[in-house]
Amino acid sequence: MLSYKVIESQEGSLFIVTSNKDNLYGLDFFTKDIEEQDFDNDFLQENIVELAIAKFSKNESVQIRRVVEACHKIFLDVIKGRFSDKIIYMSIDCNSAKCNLIEKLIYKNGNPDLVHLKVENIVGQTFYFIFNEQESSSIEVINAITDYFAKEYNIKLSFS
Amino acid sequence: MSESENKKGISFTSNSEVSAEAKLKIEKLVNVKRERLSRLVENFNSGKYIAQ
Lengths: 160, 52
Known about the structure:
A: seven-stranded mixed beta sheet, 4 helices, B: alpha+beta, two-stranded antiparallel sheet, 2 strands
């Protein structure tokens, strides 16, 4: 059974997924100062919390199913706790191990409040936005993201 | 344009060509992300998180 510990700071929350033997992954949920933000959009700037996922252990091989279960619990903690009214954002290299992990996490999710929105394969990146539908309006989030991609990158998004 | 939405989530894609300017912006964003990840792993390797 994997467990996790959390290190809180002003900037955000770092969750460390651990086994009996080792620290396996770090899930760093953090906010940036306005001038450092990726999003030139008032709504997204106010509501985005960025997530970086790092694999710490190179020694221990763990079943992906166990990692997904631990990450799912973390997401539920985050989305119902400190960042309940925020949108968790991450960009991940397409077809990478982390992309595979997030896809499995999405597939596993049975919580109707947890909405996953993704923008697939833009310059080799997949952008994920995860939020609590009880706290954030899906329509508002979708509008902000499509508007942002149109204005910032001149990319017109369509449902896939 | 096609559409799909289910209880798991919503997916978007784009069939339009990405401009060179947009590619540069996204590559910059990716580099910032990689720097962040490197710092995270460096901090971990230095024992910063174990001590807490």
